[in-house]
Amino acid sequence: MADSLQIQLKKGVLEMCVLALLSKSDNYAYDIASRMAEAVGMGEGTVYPLMRRMQNDGLVSTYLMESASGPPRKYYKITRTGMTALKAQSADWMQFETSVRKILGDVL
């Protein structure tokens, strides 16, 4: 049961976390996937489809940048729409976290 909860929590905040990373700097999908794997244990297989969906939704845009170690890399950049979504999602998350902490405070 705990694994199921972890999976659902991660799925629920994945987009917000990717947008937060991109709000700090543009990046390419493999590095985003690596950072997400390190931070919250999400794999590449989850991040790549998310990046395509976020691009289709107008949350991120892409551009190619030459790489010294191979072919050009597709970089992702957060858009204004993405920044607006990040702010809204962050506010929702903070409100939700506060509510859950209040409830858990009675139990723990």
Task: Describe this structure as you would to a colleague.
The chain is of the alpha+beta class and 108 residues long. The protein has one domain (2-107): Orthogonal Bundle (Arc Repressor Mutant, subunit A). The protein is 70% helix and 18% strand. The protein is built from 4 helices and 3 strands, in the order αβααββα. The chain has helices at residues 2-24, 29-40, 44-56, 80-107, and strands at 27-28, 60-67, 70-78. A 3-stranded antiparallel β-sheet has the order 1-3-2. α1 (2-24) runs antiparallel to α4 and α2 (29-40) crosses α3 (44-56). It is elongated, with a radius of gyration of 16 Å. The protein starts with a helix and ends with a helix.
Which structural category fits the helices and strands? Answer: alpha+beta
How many DSSP helices? 4
Strand order of the largest sheet: 1-3-2
CATH architectural name: Orthogonal Bundle
Strand/helix succession = HEHHEEH
Distance from first to last alpha carbon: 19 Å
What is the CATH C-level name? Answer: Mainly Alpha
What is the CATH superfamily classification? Winged helix-like DNA-binding domain superfamily/Winged helix DNA-binding domain
Provide the low-confidence segments as ranges: none
Radius of gyration from the CA trace?
16 Å
Fraction in beta strands:
15-25%
Helix-residue proportion:
over 70%
The quaternary state of the protein chains shown equals single chain
pLDDT averaged residue by residue: 90
**For the report, how would you describe the main beta sheet?**
3 strands, antiparallel
Total of domains: 1
Number of strands: 3
The CATH topology comes to Arc Repressor Mutant, subunit A
